[in-house]
Amino acid sequence: MEKLSKELQQKITKVNMGLVAVLVLLWGFIFFNPANRIDASEAQTLMSQLYIDDNQEMINTNLTKDEFNAIQQKLDRHRPSHAKLNEAEEKFELHELMTSIYHPESLNEEPHFNQTVSAETVDQATNYLEQVDKEDVFYKEATTLVQNAQEDLTKMDLFHNEIDLSKAPIVKERADIPEAVSFVSQYDDTFVGIEEHAPTFPVIAEYQAYLDDLCEVIVDEFTTQYFSDEFLDEMYQVDSLASRFELTPMDPGKLVALTFDDGPNEEYTTQVLEILEEHDIVGTFFVMGAYVDDSPHIAREIVERGHIIGNHTYNHPDLAVETPEEVLKQYRWTTESIYDETGVMPDLFRLPFGSGGPREIELAGDMTSIMWNTDSADWELQDAEAIFENVKNNLHRHSVILMHDTAQYTVDALKLIIPYLKEEGYRFVEPTQVDFYRRF
Ligand SMILES: [Zn+2]
To answer: Of 83, 109, 133, which closes a domain?
Structure first.
């Protein structure tokens, strides 16, 4: 009996060992099974659909709820209770909450409010974030957005209570502008910021329309007659106006166009071209036809180096006292000389001595008259330092500077003027890019 049972025991042990071996084999088979390995990489692929970054912090908010659920189910089969998967679930929940505050498409760019936004939805999101209490890029971004939403809502309430659009001055002409500017300046602090974030709210949209109309009148008036620098400053301090002036003649940036008259000149034009090239600046040369005929290669160099060539009459008469026939001849001969030598038809012109009016402008046809608002007075001062000081003292936010490429003192002054303008933050532009009022 005992012997038998011993044999039996041995048998059982063998069977057990066999079973263990089978299990080991089976485990190995499962573990190294190529089919399961594909599952692992599939899982990785699925995770990479949930997250857009390598750190797996930012979820892919382009996924729909169904798409997310499908991925979630597949992943659950593979590795249940995956921490990153649970986190993604939380993040999608939060994202959904965020889209009741902000417009979904705007969340990736310039977030602006959804019409459904309310103090309650913002509070909900705040509470959610407090509960989660995690710090990665996604939560940090969400926290900032929710904080901004809270501030913006407060501002919007304030704006709502403050503004009375029925009291907004009606702006039809120049004389109405100052009152309107002081009206809008009262709301600027509250309005700036919420303007971009809540453009679809009726009171904001209405106020925006008022600002747009006001700016249209201002720019329009400005192009016919200049405003004082003090008044310009006052307007530029109102952010909601300043942002609307961008890329108009009222752009708050500093612009300057360098113009050179009475060339081309063998000795000095060449030096001016060298300096401009050194600084990578475009200049405008109002040339006289007679000098183009004398020095055609200089005229060509002006054009070849990428500068603008303009018509400054044939031999510089005071057009205001000439007959129409003579004025036309002065323009035509010069345009012909320029065209013959450079292949360029000038479309800008400058009146000699700045003398002339509507008749001379009319006779110039398609050419645009370019005046100046900063006179270097180089021909009068005849000293580089004095010319430089004079330019410095007469600069405007948008300046067209008049110089003459006919003397060494101007060339030397230019070497002082350009670095100064750069230091002061001026952008070098073409004369037509500067305020229209400086042209006739
Ligand atoms: Zn001149």
So the answer is: 133
